[in-house]
Design a protein that fits this description.
about 800 residues; alpha+beta; DNA primase, PRIM domain; 48 strands; about 30% strand; globular
Length: about 800
């Protein structure tokens, strides 16, 4: 983790490629020892390699102490709304509705939870398996001392339990809980349900009580516990959780749920361990609980489940391979040419004792000019590194497989959404040495989709194919500008309406770019604004509505844009919620920030939104124009905006310091006429006649007759009827189009999507996208139309 800096708004740090703002690092979290929040965050950052394997894939519930262990605590299940978008989460259904639980995959997530004072982390004994709860992969017994007994008695009961479990092939490992007692964990094969394991643990507790009634109790009643150790079997219930190994405890001192050796349990003076002691032990002994964490054998279960031994020549994992952590020597890779139902190539990278695998239909890209789709498949055993042969018909993956190239690789970055590696193939092989980036674009785990991009040289990512753009030269201009400006700064272009938000510390006022007050139309935004804090601010952003796939939809937003009646607004806001994606700040407190560089304004904006919750959102910033365009294309976004990170904020003016790069051609147009509908549209609007303001007048650019919903047609008819006039507002409208036109005053602006401008200057394949109430006719640009004219 990069060392934090110093600033009045907290410290912005980099944690393995994730940016986090850390605040109140000097706050005392453990009053008895003076342990600060900064020390808590440092502990979780350093213990992450040992802790994460034991919580990965499990929902994490937290106990938070915002004011330290001397203050109030509260139990948190659902992930707080202001959590970073990159933090993994998984929904669990409850009687009150589904709740999103955090799922810790990396150190950055662990540091974030520590930042919000989540001292204790609790997890169940099962992991998510595909879409829901899997079967438990470990058994736990919580040995809880009653009044009059302590750790020594718990250790005695632990040894008795060890004998019983050992007789049935389970080898338990002890953990001093950091509170009063001892936890015993035993690894399970995942063949039994939580109910079955809970019942078994209950019988085990009863057996211990029957053999040692003077010291052991299995009943829940607290009145039976004085002078005895309660063997709590209930934490194997699928709905129960246990303090995670290596988690801090919210006690007087910063004690930890610490793995121990059986020899230690024999020692006199056995006690709970503090976090500094645990870190020292890890440096010397490593993770004593490592045998409990899932390894290669667990990762390979999907592979084994899809194949039958003897029916396919493919290799199957053996016991030796299941313990191979893949870190001895340099990591290996293989690319196999797979003539299955369709020819594709399989890229496999050795990691943690298995081969992480992707199917790449078009093979590894030969240069940086194109990105290739890669779909993640199940991990494969290491012996697949040299597998070649024919998988029989009727078997999974049937077809002939050959080795295209194989060798070693070095990973510069390995995150759940991005991998950068340099691979060196065999001498004389087709690959040579090449550097690649794998970037996840959708999904998670098996069947997730990635882009495989070939990078030119260390530190430089070459450009993939540019999608179709309104102006072909724009990507080159954007790339050149980004190079000239230094570090690239690329933001996604969201399909919404631009809005300025003025926050006075108590109320948020929203205005469209035209100056129209649109506050009342978006009550969910004003309701969430309290998270901006007491400091006044002026913010710039985009109001968007998402479709079912989580993509911005201007069509859906139109259902909200024109409503004025409170009852209609309330009804539609429940059906079509919006978000305010904030990308700039003009003022904070009494300070005008417009002269500051964009990079500094962004840091201030991140601070202002540190506690903000959805629907107030801070969208990401990318560092590569072409890769961002490809990602925008995959996500079906409108395009990107390339900005000079040194630029000031320029009110109401266009600037080359902000370059829009659209994936489809769109154009703002002025409505000047209606052609009456026929057939199914009789009595309604058939098409709109539209134009673009030029020096010669409102230049006619064609008709738009598609892209309308029935509701939009009715709305347009209502707003255009009062604008009816006998005067033709256009220059250059053909007689055929004017023959039955109903003219309207050119007061309203809409947006259309189109293929191109024809040589005569009209829109080809135009499709209506919606009204633009945030744009006036005078603001409609003719530059694209003029540049397309011969």
């Amino acid at each position: 983790m990069a060392a934090p800096g110093t600033g009045p708004r907290g410290d912005l740090v980099d944690v393995d490629g994730r940016r986090l703002r850390l605040t109140n690092l000097d706050k005392v979290m453990y009053p008895d020892t003076g342990t600060t929040k900064g020390e808590v965050i440092d502990y979780y950052s350093r213990v992450a390699p040992a802790l994460l394997p034991h919580v990965r894939g499990r929902p994490v519930t937290r106990i938070r102490w915002p004011d330290g262990t001397g203050g109030e605590r509260f139990f948190a299940k659902a992930l707080e709304a202001g959590a970073p978008e990159w933090l993994a989460r998984h929904a669990i259904d409850h009687s009150s509705g589904a709740k999103d639980y955090p799922v810790l995959d990396d150190r950055a997530g662990l540091v974030y939870l520590a930042q919000v004072a989540s001292l204790e982390l609790h997890t169940p004994q099962w992991r998510f398996d595909g879409g829901g709860r899997g079967r438990p992969d470990r058994l736990v017994l919580d040995l809880d001392p009653g009044p009059g007994v302590g750790l020594a008695e718990c250790a005695e009961v632990a040894r008795w339990a060890r004998d019983i479990l050992g007789d049935i092939g389970l080898d338990p490992l002890p953990v001093t809980s950091g509170s009063k007692g001892i936890h015993l964990y035993a690894r399970l094969d995942g063949a039994r349900t939580s109910e079955e394991i809970s019942a078994f643990a209950h019988e085990l507790a009863r057996a211990l009580e029957a053999d040692h009634p003077d010291l052991v109790v299995s009943a829940m009643a607290k009145t039976a516990r004085p002078g005895r150790v309660f063997v709590d079997w209930s934490q194997n219930n699928g709905a129960k959780t246990t303090i995670a190994p290596y988690s801090l405890r919210g006690r007087a001192e910063p004690t930890v749920a610490a793995p121990r050796t059986w020899a230690e349990l024999e020692l006199l003076g056995l006690r709970q361990l503090r976090f500094d002691e645990v870190l020292e032990r890890l440096e010397h002994d490593g993770d004593l609980l490592s045998a409990l964490a899932p390894g290669a054998a667990d990762a390979l279960r999907p592979y084994v489940a899809k194949r039958t031994v003897g029916a396919t020549p493919e290799p199957f994992p053996d016991a030796a391979e299941a313990t191979d952590d893949g870190r001895s020597g340099q990591a290996r890779f293989v690319v196999q040419e797979h003539h299955a139902r369709r020819l594709h190539f399989d890229l496999r990278l050795e990691r943690d004792g298995v081969l992480e695998s992707w199917a790449v239909p078009r093979g590894l890209p030969g240069d940086g000019e194109r990105n290739h789709l890669a779909v993640m498949t199940e991990p494969h055993p290491l012996r697949y590194l040299d597998f070649a042969g024919t998988i029989p018909a009727g078997q999974y993956g049937a077809g002939t497989m050959t080795i295209w190239d194989t060798g070693v690789y070095t990973a510069e970055k390995w995150r759940d959404d991005e991998i950068i590696f340099t691979a060196s193939g065999r001498p004389g092989g087709p690959l040579g040495t090449a550097r690649f980036a794998l970037i996840r674009t959708s999904g998670a785990g098996e069947k997730s989709q990635w882009l495989l991009h070939r990078m030119s040289r260390a530190g430089e990512r070459r450009a993939p194919d540019a999608p179709m753009l309104a102006t072909p030269s724009t990507p080159a201009l954007a790339s050149a500008a980004a190079t000239r400006w230094g570090d690239p700064w690329v933001e996604f272009k969201w399909d919404g309406i631009r809005a300025i938000g003025t926050w006075d510390g108590a109320h948020l006022i929203l205005r469209a770019r035209s100056g129209t007050d649109i506050t009342a139309r978006y009550p969910e935004l004003t309701a969430a604004a309290g998270a901006l804090g007491a400091e006044p601010a002026v913010l710039d952003g985009e109001i968007v509505a998402m479709d079912a796939a989580g993509r911005p939809s201007f069509t859906r937003l139109q259902a909200r844009m024109h409503l004025t009646k409170p009852a209609e607004i309330a009804q539609e806001s429940a059906r079509t919620p919006v978000q305010f994606l904030l990308f700039d700040v003009l003022r904070a407190g009494e300070e005008d920030l417009t002269a500051l560089p964009l990079r500094e304004r962004r840091a201030i904006l991140e601070h202002l939104l540190a506690q903000a919750t959805a629907p107030l959102v801070l969208p990401p910033v990318a560092d590569d124009v072409r890769v961002a365009l490809s990602a925008a294309s995959d996500l079906q976004l409108e395009g990107v905006v390339v900005k000079d990170p040194r630029s000031p904020y320029r009110r109401g003016t266009r600037s080359e310091e902000w370059l829009k790069v659209k994936l489809t051609a769109t154009q703002d147009v002025v409505i000047g006429g209606i052609r009456p509908g026929r057939g199914g549209r009789t009595g309604s609007i058939g098409s709109l006649l539209v134009g673009i303001p030029t020096a010669a007048g409102l230049r006619y650019v064609g008709r738009v007759g598609s892209g309308f919903s029935e509701r939009e047609l009715a709305r347009l008819a209502a707003v255009l009827e009062p604008l009816r006039t006998e005067e033709n507002p256009f220059v250059g409208v053909p007689d055929a189009d004017a023959s039955d036109a109903l003219w309207v005053r050119p007061d309203l602006v809409g947006e259309v999507e189109f293929a191109e401008f024809t040589p005569s200057g009209t829109l080809r394949h135009a499709r209506w996208r919606g009204r633009r109430e945030d744009v006036t006719p005078a603001q409609v640009s003719a530059s694209a139309w003029e540049s397309a004219r011969p």
